[in-house]
Amino acid sequence: MPATIRDVAKYANVGVGTVSRVLNNNPSVSDETRLKVLAAIKDLDYHPNPIARQLSTGRTLTIGVILPYLTMPSYVERLRGVQRALAGTEYDLILFSVESPAQRDAFFEDISRSPRADGILIISLPPEDQQARRLANSQVPVVLVDAYHPELCSVLIDDIQGGRMITEYLIQLGHQKIAFLGDYLETPFHPSMRYRFQGYQEALQEAGITYSPEYLAEGTNERSTARRLAKQLLSLENPPTAIFAGCDTQAIGVLDAAREMGIRVPEALSVIGYDGIRDAEYLNLTTVEQHLFDSGVEGVQLLLEALDQTIPEPRKKYIPIELVVRGTTAPPLA
């Protein structure tokens, strides 16, 4: 019978996640461990063969990913990380796109009753307590990415800190009239937007700046919606001198609005985004880089360890964030 990734892990006395890291040239693996895994691969003549393994093990040999907003750049980047981490393993990837709370609930119920994959990644869709208990007790391991529940493994970004980081930076530049433009804060999807807004409010309060409700603009996460909302903010009697956009796509919409209104960025308006998508670099956009690709990789590696039963209990892992200052932020006009 052909060797499996589990056979390699057992032979090398490491976890399945470590074998995956070696197969993907992850620099976090020590040279000693890497050589040990490569020797095991050679000795066992390991070659992934999903179809043959499905027949011999009765498993699906698939990893399911459930997520909203399938076409958003930030989710595409996370999926690139998921795909990279699965490369060289015996698992294929299957996507489930969620467009409503009812559809989300149906997927969660389906997982707990009759799973269609060996493991599940859930991105930006935090389960309710009852749902989390069912998922934790289901036949397959589940890992959350960009969401958290204490009964499940999670890969997280500290979005409260990210919101504070952005707002504190703008305050240091001299801005006091800072607007927040983002998704609807009460949406069941993308809970990180609420945490970014919380960090924004906390930073304002600590700086002694009164939060102004007129500086909050909520809407869907399309670029065109952000452009419309930004025009409303910039048309106020006392417009903001800086706009913190909840994601880079929305920040690009703000730049569109400023250009159409003849407002110079960053001289007359500072704009800052969040995510670190590829377009942010092309547009010279100041943003918070949250290493989306890495969060996808880490989610898969946690899931592989859970499949290998090497995780004794639910745990959470934080992905670091960093402020990347480019050309869309500056001190306000005197």
If you had to describe this structure to a student in words, what would you say it looks like?
The protein is an alpha/beta fold and 334 residues long. It has two domains: 5-157 and 292-318, Rossmann fold; 159-290, 3-Layer(aba) Sandwich (Rossmann fold). It has 13 helices and twelve strands. The protein has helices spanning 5-12, 16-23, 31-44, 50-57, 73-86, 101-113, 129-136, 159-173, 192-206, 223-234, 248-261, 278-282, 292-307, and strands at 62-68, 92-98, 119-123, 142-145, 153-156, 178-183, 216-219, 242-245, 270-275, 286-289, 316-318, 322-324. The strands form two sheets. The protein has a six-stranded parallel beta sheet, with helices on both faces. Strands 7-6-8-9-10-12 form a six-stranded mixed beta sheet, with helices on both faces. Helix 1 crosses helix 3, helix 6 (101-113) runs parallel beside helix 7 and helix 10 packs across helix 11 (248-261). The longest helix is centred in the C-terminal third of the chain and has 16 residues, at 292-307. The termini are far apart.
